[in-house]
Amino acid sequence: MKHLLKLMDLTTDEIVSILNLADQLKYERKNHIPHPRLAGKTLGMIFQKNSTRTRVSFEVGMYELGGSALFLSSRDLQIGRGEPVEDTARVLSRYLDGIMIRTYKQSEVEDLARCGSIPIINGLTDYCHPCQVLADMMTVREYKGSFKGLKMAYIGDGNNMANSLIVGGVKLGMQVAVACPADYSPAGDVTDWAGEQGLYTQYSSSDARGNVLLAARDADVLFTDVWASMGQEGEAEKRRAAFKGYCIDAQVMSAAKDDCMVQHCLPAHRGEEIAADVFEAHAGEIFEEAENRLHAQKALMVKLMGDDK
Ligand code: CP
Ligand code: NVA
Description:
Strand order of the largest sheet: 7-6-5-8-9
Bound molecules: phosphoric acid mono(formamide)ester, norvaline
CATH superfamily of the largest domain: Aspartate/ornithine carbamoyltransferase
Order of helices and strands: HEHEHEHEHEHEHEHEHHEHH
Number of helices: 12
């Protein structure tokens, strides 16, 4: 494992070994055991989109690992004025030990990895959000003990989160169900692959509520995400109409198992993809999920940037 560009590139063993190290680092942090495994190393963080969790968890994570992190807004970098990514990658490779990038096109992340000589971490593109899903899988295992026999369901837009959750869930052996409008399906390469593994079902009929209730039936964990992602703000109204019915509310919860978890990568829009009462009833595991970004990404960085990798 040289980079984290998308979860599809990782084997199940690699994902599990990141999760195991994340659990260990969480334990060490909780017990005030220092773990300076990246002492003297520097992570560059390029942001072309907003962020609260990703920025802070990577920055704090590097600090806790004994290294440092640089916030690099694309507004300030020459890349924002057209300097080619090929040159940026070769320059930054001479200063830094790793780069985390949040951007629009997946190809920009792949280009950075191709042209640079240091590990590249995808901090969200329009296509996927692998760091988030490492934290999500860590949280599911923390609450459920293992992935064996679990059913996860994703309700809503077939976006970057859906793409990564399908791949992560299937790689870890869960049954994955998705309910989404037919025009807002996850990426074809992801659904084709997941279908071949025999663990994927998608509900996209014209009956929105029927789709959601079928996907949620007997689920152990329900996931959702916003209906309009970053960069789609102009479509928000159209999307609100298209996603009517794709909300995790009390009726949906009653279709799932009694001890079903709810996960949301945040930020959340209460009253759209998730009802306020469901959000608050499951706030404990949702904010644990947010905390686990820190532990999962620390583990990832140790694996990619550590001397004993
Ligand atoms: N979930 C997530 O990636 O949050 P931010 O956009 O705040 O980084
Ligand atoms: N799908 C959302 C996720 C935010 C963490 C977005 O891309 O804006």
